[in-house]
Fold:
Amino acid sequence: MSKKLFLYPLLLLSISAFSQTLYLPLNQEYNRNLQKAVYNKDLHFHTSVRSYYETDFEKAGVNYDSVQQILKMERSFPKKWKQKTWDKVFNEDVATFIRKDYEIIANPLMNFGLGNEFAEPKSVWVNTRGIELKGRIGKNLGYYTNFYENQAIFPEYLDTYIRENGVVPGQGQYKSYADGEGFDYAASTGYLALRASKYFSFQFGHGKNFYGDGYRSLLLSDNSFNNLFLKATVNFWHIKYQVLYNQYIDIRSNQPEIGHPRKYSTVHYLSWAVSKRVNISFFDAIIWQATDSTGTYRGFDLQYLNPIIFMRPVEFSTGSPDNALMGLNMSVIVGKHNVFYGQLILDEFKFEEVTAGNGWWGNKQGFQLGFKTFDPFRIKNLYFQTEYNWVRPYTYSHREPMKNYGHYNQPLAHPYGANFWESVSFLKYNYKRIFLNYQFIYAIYGDDPEGLNYGKDIYKSYDTRVSDYDNYVGQGIETRLLYNHISASYLINPAYNLNFSIGYVNRNLKTNADTHQTNYFYVGLKTSLGNKYYDF
Structure:
């Protein structure tokens, strides 16, 4: 009996290690213990490549299982069935079928929320039901899928955004619901993940990717709807290199027989852990449309299958018809768990025009500067982050709007598009499974008067710009945003982030001509597996 008791924990650990073939959810709220573990002066870990592949923790020397056990709620019962019930409710996946050669794991997904908007009296609610299915086949092939069915009535500013853009932020198109007052929408994610060898892995599916160390990304974020992608990763020495092939959709038109027009991108991302404290990453992307300007079907341009980074020469050799972007990401760990980070995005760059300081429209650049710290002032589980983002007008746009850096009527990088600066800060704390969060945003962006293009909307052709020179961030209708969000949640089960939360949002949007005030309170029971960006 004593031998069995000794061997059982080892068996569990071996099964867990054996099954690490999946990617972690992109949700940033409940994985701070893992973040603190990887932002470590004693590791070489590629923190800007998200979502994280479970196998990479083992490669970097992070004990993934031990970190995950931190939130486990221990309690012993004399009867086995009581112990099993307790663990299923508070610690484990709901349904598991684990064998040596395969695993099947299932969890319910939900978001049942109620709220009230006070500035313009209105009841708001969301009703989400879904399911998550994941596991592995053999040692090296993992699979994941989920599905969400939703009905909702949103606060007025979100309601306006959804009706103007035809999409629920990050969650796709909708149908009218409740006599036109609400929205009915669905979303699904799915992928296969293959660990081909010690150094190579592949992922194919429908979902989101993120490059950066910040809350926002100016390179590629999870702001827009899921998209089809194929990703190949090489991880060796202090290098992690990814090639990401994407298919994107423009929902502004619908073509007979083929539906919404498609476009494609090839992305290269090279992350180099210069030391255990310094990481530098290089990014490039090419975006092209499936049908060219003459109406000829082009499909996936085979020239862009090239897996080698810095595609600009290839793009130039084809007559420069497509949209090319380049970028840089950097992070530096200072002390034990203090991180300075930043990004640079270059959509177009001419040195003589930049140094002239004359506001040339083609100076399409942006940058991010940020800082985050874990356990500041030696307060365990306290977290602080502050970040500044700045993007010039017309960045991410193109002469042909189909070639912009967008998908499903939303930007692929920052939610604001371009022509803005933003300061966003977080103060977070958790005691065991109680999580407290405060978010503050102050931003200025330049909106467009009717019929004019001052550079915020990336879905407008830059040929419609208002001026060749004297362009500046915030031009157009100067709009100021103040956004405060305070919330508290209790994490019921960390296996699939089931939590009960309450919160309050205060939003103030002001121009010289008008002010829009939003105040709403909400409560909810939900599974938090992704990020929803309603802070605009």
